[in-house]
């Protein structure tokens, strides 16, 4: 996952997700990393290029990937 900035494109805060729409190289591609506050706005912006895809960026929200712990 290296190469994506991990700061919100709008406020510079810690990003929680990469929002993409369209296809790279097609001329209708939009991608933006956003924090929790700007995720909805980024999704609206990206949706002009088509259906959006959201990829969580795990480093600031480990709870997204919380797994049940096996204790033994
Ligand atoms: Zn933000």
Structure notes:
- The N and C termini lie far apart (33 Å).
- The chain has one helix at 39-46; strands at residues 17-23, 28-34, 52-56.
- The protein has a domain at 19-61.
- A hairpin with a 4-residue loop joins strand 1 and strand 2 (28-34).
- It is globular.
- The longest helix is centred in the middle third of the chain and has 8 residues, at 39-46.
- Residues 60-65 have low confidence and may be disordered.
- The chain is of the alpha+beta class and 72 residues long.
- A 3-stranded antiparallel β-sheet has the order 2-1-3, covered by helices on one side.
- 11% of the residues lie in helices and 26% in strands.
- The protein contains 1 helix and 3 strands; from the N terminus they run ββαβ.
- The protein binds zinc ion.
- Zinc ion binds next to loops.
Task: Provide keyphrases for this structure.
single chain, 72 residues, alpha+beta, three-stranded antiparallel beta sheet, 3 strands, 11% helix, globular, binds zinc ion
SS-based structural class?
alpha+beta
Ligands, deduplicated? zinc ion
Strand fraction equals: 25-35%
User: What is the percent of helical residues?
Assistant: 10-25%
Radius of gyration: 14 Å
> What's the mean pLDDT score?
83
- In DSSP terms (H or I, runs of 4 or more residues), the helix count works out at 1
User: Taking strands numbered 1, 2, ... along the chain, how are they ordered across the largest sheet?
Assistant: 2-1-3
Tell the overall outline: globular
How can the largest sheet be summarized?
3 strands, antiparallel
From N to C, what is the helix and strand string? EEHE
Low-confidence stretches: 60-65
Number of strands: 3
Distance between the termini: 33 Å
